[in-house]
From TrEMBL, chain A:
<dbReference type="InterPro" id="IPR002677">
    <property type="entry name" value="Ribosomal_bL32"/>
</dbReference>
<dbReference type="GO" id="GO:0003735">
    <property type="term" value="F:structural constituent of ribosome"/>
</dbReference>
<keyword id="KW-0687">Ribonucleoprotein</keyword>
<dbReference type="InterPro" id="IPR044957">
    <property type="entry name" value="Ribosomal_bL32_bact"/>
</dbReference>
<dbReference type="Pfam" id="PF01783">
    <property type="entry name" value="Ribosomal_L32p"/>
</dbReference>
<feature type="region of interest" description="Disordered">
    <location>
        <begin position="1"/>
        <end position="20"/>
    </location>
</feature>
<keyword id="KW-0689">Ribosomal protein</keyword>
<protein>
    <recommendedName>
        <fullName>Large ribosomal subunit protein bL32</fullName>
    </recommendedName>
</protein>
<feature type="compositionally biased region" description="Basic residues">
    <location>
        <begin position="7"/>
        <end position="18"/>
    </location>
</feature>
Automatic annotation (TrEMBL), chain B:
<dbReference type="InterPro" id="IPR047859">
    <property type="entry name" value="Ribosomal_bL17_CS"/>
</dbReference>
<dbReference type="GO" id="GO:0022625">
    <property type="term" value="C:cytosolic large ribosomal subunit"/>
</dbReference>
<keyword id="KW-0687">Ribonucleoprotein</keyword>
<feature type="compositionally biased region" description="Basic and acidic residues">
    <location>
        <begin position="141"/>
        <end position="157"/>
    </location>
</feature>
<comment type="subunit">
    <text>Part of the 50S ribosomal subunit. Contacts protein L32.</text>
</comment>
<feature type="region of interest" description="Disordered">
    <location>
        <begin position="123"/>
        <end position="157"/>
    </location>
</feature>
<keyword id="KW-0689">Ribosomal protein</keyword>
<dbReference type="GO" id="GO:0006412">
    <property type="term" value="P:translation"/>
</dbReference>
<dbReference type="InterPro" id="IPR036373">
    <property type="entry name" value="Ribosomal_bL17_sf"/>
</dbReference>
């Protein structure tokens, strides 16, 4: 039966695995106009929950 | 040829899907804004827009039909007594979906769905934003400090 001739060293193993995500592109981010933190475009800000100039997360308090 | 109207199955059986959308619709009518996955938000929109339009007829029959779909007296009462009046003459499009950043853990696309007529004014006191949850899991001291600051700030107000 097919079998490895020699043990795969940690170095070789890790060098192989280092390539798994090596070419993954960083996500496109924009800076939130409200808080200035980087966040995803076309989505409510991950930091402050604002979108199009208003808070869009959390409870709505009905007066 | 007979064509099936495209709709998401949401990985559920027909009964489970019906229950899910009924529950989401009920919660949306009661809370005016709910956070869920993008797919569920978009399916809920289909269901709840039709329910609201039907409710505007204001007939006893409409009320009974809606109750049979929602099975929730509080939601039906809220819908007929509060929401219908608030909507005024809006010709459909009672809901708005805003995308959120992907959920921590499974990276599911998330969104909020809200009733347009309740969401115009900037809402007070943001309750623990989504990102806090992910930070808590990591247990970073910075997140803890931030949340404590927030709690302190809210208490001061
Ligand atoms: Zn922000």
């Amino acid at each position: 039966m097919a079998n490895p001739k020699a043990k795969m060293s940690k170095s070789r193993r890790d060098k192989r695995r280092a390539q798994y995500n090596a070419r993954t592109k960083a996500a496109v981010t924009v800076l939130c106009p409200n808080c200035g933190e980087p966040t995803l475009p076309h989505r409510a800000c991950r930091h402050c929950g604002h979108y199009k100039g208003r808070q869009v997360t959390g409870k709505i308090v009905v007066a | 040829m007979r064509k099936v109207k495209p709709a998401r199955k949401l990985g559920r059986t027909a009964a489970h899907r019906k229950a899910t959308l009924s529950n989401l619709s009920t919660q949306l009518l009661i809370y005016k804004r709910i956070e869920t996955t993008e797919a569920k938000a978009k399916e809920t929109r289909r269901v709840v827009e039709k329910i609201i339009t039907k409710a505007r007829k204001g007939t006893h029959h409409a009320q009974r039909e809606i109750f049979s779909a929602l099975r929730d007296k509080d939601a039906v009462r809220e819908l007929f007594e509060e929401i219908v009046g608030k909507i005024g003459s809006r010709p459909g499009g009672y809901t708005r979906i805003i995308k959120l950043v992907p959920r921590f853990g499974d990276a599911a696309k998330m969104a909020v769905i809200e009733l347009v007529d309740y969401a115009e004014a900037p809402s007070a006191a943001p309750v623990a934003a989504k990102q806090d949850r992910s930070k808590r899991v990591k247990g970073s001291k910075k997140a803890e400090a931030e949340s404590q600051e927030k709690e302190g700030g809210e208490a001061a107000e």
